[in-house]
Structures are given as structure tokens and as C-alpha cells.
What we know:
The chain is an alpha+beta fold. It folds into two domains: 5-58 and 262-411, no CATH class; 64-256, no CATH class. It has helices spanning 5-15, 21-62, 78-86, 120-123, 152-158, 198-201, 209-216, 235-245, 255-258, 260-298, 300-308, 313-357, 378-404, 408-411; strands spanning 66-70, 91-106, 109-118, 133-136, 147-151, 165-176, 179-193, 204-208, 224-229, 250-254. It is elongated. The two termini are 35 Å apart.
Amino acid sequence: MFRPLEAYIGLRYTRAKRRNHFISFISFSSMAGIALGVTALITVLSVMNGFEKELRERILGMASHATISGVNGRLEDWPKLARLAGEHPQVTGVAPYVRGEVMLSRGSYVRGALLRGILPAEEGAVSDIRGYMEAGSLDALQANAFKILVGADLARALGLRVGDKLTTLAPQPNVTPIGVLPRLKRFTVAGIFRVGHAQYDSALALVHLQDAAKLFRYGETVSGLRIRVDKLMEAPRVSQDLGRSAGRAVWVSDWTQVHANFFRALKTEKTVMFIILALIVAVAAFNIVATLMMVVVDKESDIAILRTLGLTPRRVMGVFIVQGMVIGLFGTLLGVAGGIALALNVETLVPAIESLFETKFLAADVYYISEVPSDLRWADVGIIAVVAFLMTIVATFYPAWRASRTHPATALRYE
């Protein structure tokens, strides 16, 4: 089978045993360095993807995918809008809510919180609150019973348990003949939930929709409608469709707007980590420069003979580019295989290492996510492999160019 001369000589140089074993060692270390760098990149990015996915699921397990609210903070004739939203083919759940900021107090403890009024029977269609309950039950919220569910961190800060009483202080005052008095209401703790995100665990309380409407004087109106869609990434388009079909002045938002800063920060962190770890691959790739430079010196007489036999400088350059590409290709392939194997088994390996050394990397009492998740994305694997291989190709240019500049007469003078 025909093979180009440059590829043949380059592969022969790669396979040949070195007179100088140090060159072989540098070649092997360059290949190993590229493999380790690619493995680290794939594994770390997969773990970061896993944390991002876990955080997104926890945040959006409580937050709505899209929200329809009134321009003035109140949404009138909401049952009609709820039916309209429910008719959209990609909407899987619609639930009304009333929200407002309150002060919660128990004895000498006082904390600010976001109070959300919900309908327990419909809340499961737009959130995963039932799965986050640590104590009590969502069904305990009954109209006019004035029961309340609080986040685990908020309960700890106020010293609350199921069955305890707490007082809510609403910002809207009562005007009475004896003056302006704060609006106070006693609630009974009916449950405690833990989402695993400080935004909810330390600052959210849930009550029945009618109780919240009475507290905030909403009457028959609500703050808005919470909507869940079947495909998370389609939420912006669905929210636009609902805004157009509403037929009135309403404010429609989706999770990509509400949590934009948080997920943008995660994306920026992932990009920075990619750049930092890519430097490991770059260092290993540019070790190829040292390897090929020593090969050029070692094979100087061979290059001179090839030149006298008619091999052009361009083709000489191709010989050493092939050799560098082989080192880079094998290093990249080994790194991709190692990275995929590690990324797919992180959730098994980490507990095994923790058990072996009797330690815990992510303590449950410190971190909200106590397990190391992993989410291998083939697009990331492809980008990493291409970037690593391109680095190795770039690293071969200078040594190959130096080889092409070899003068036969000078190289063979003392042979």
C-alpha cells in the first residue's frame, strides 16, 4: 500500500530505538503529560457540569420555569389565564401564588423571609416541594388554618419545630382609631423542608394561598402564575408565546432571566477552569519542541543524506511534523480514554476513596451537595481533544522548520 515518504520516515523515526535514551524519555513524558492533561480536563469539566446540573435541578425544583405576573404586582382574572397557559402544548403545570416579604419572629428571634402562598393540590405540578420535606407534610396547609412550612435553615435560626407557633409581621399596616398598627398573624409550623440551596432553605416560608391573600389583602387576586414546561431550555420561547397570547398587559419571565447572574457565573467559572487546565496540556505539548529539537540534532546526518537524495526542505519539514503529530495523537487518545473512564466512574470512585482514607471530601453539614456528581458531555470531550491535538501540531512547527534548514555540506563535513 502506498504511503507518502514523509509519513513513512516520520513513523519510522517514531518507532525506532534511540541511541540517546534521554530523547525517548522526553518523548514518553510529553505523551504522558498530554494524556494526563486531557484526562484532568475531561474529568474536571464533567464534575463541574455535574455540579451545575445538580444546582439547576435544585433551584428549578422550587423555582418556576416561567412566571406570569401582573404589571402592578397583582394578577386579576387569573383562572382564565391559567386555563390559557395550560392549553399550551409544552406547558405541563400551572399554579397560582401570592408572595410578599414578612418578618418572622419567635420569642427573641426575628428573621426576614419571603412568604409564598400556594395551593397544595396544584403546587406539585410546578415544583418538587413534596420531595424536599424533612418533617411534616405539604397537605397540612389548609385554607384558614394558618399553617406554615419553613426552610430548614430558617427553622434552625428561629429554633422552630413542627407544632411551634410563630408570628408574621406584614409590611402593610392596619389603620385603626387608635393609630397605625403593624399587621401581625400567628401561624403554626406544619412542616420543614430542605432544598439544598440557601435561597430557599434560609429565606422561604410557604402558607396556603387564601391565608397569604388575607395577610397581604389580595382579595380574589394573586401575585401571578407559576408555570412548568416539559423541556427546560424551551422556557424562553414558551414564555414569549404566553405573553403574546395573554391579550393584556402582563409581565412574563422565565428562569434564564431570573437566575441569569447565577448561571452566568457558573459558566464563567467553567471557562476559566478550562483555560487553567488547558495550560497543563500546553506545557506537555510544548515538551514536544524539546523532543523534536533533540531528534533533529540526533538525525542531522540522516537529514543531510535525504537532502542530497532530493528531498525538499518542505518534505523534510513534513517528516518531523508527522513525528510530533504521532506523539500528540497517541497522548490525546490516551487522555480521552482515561478522562471518559474517570468521568463515568467519579460517583463510584470518590466514595471508595473516602471509605479507604476514612474522610469526607464534601461534608454534609458544610456543603449543600455532599456527593461529587459527574455529567460527561461529548461536546466537551470533542473540544478538549481537538484543542489538545492542535497544540501538539503547533509545537512541531519550529523543530520541523529547523530540520528543513539543515545544509547537507555542513552536516556531512565530519562524517
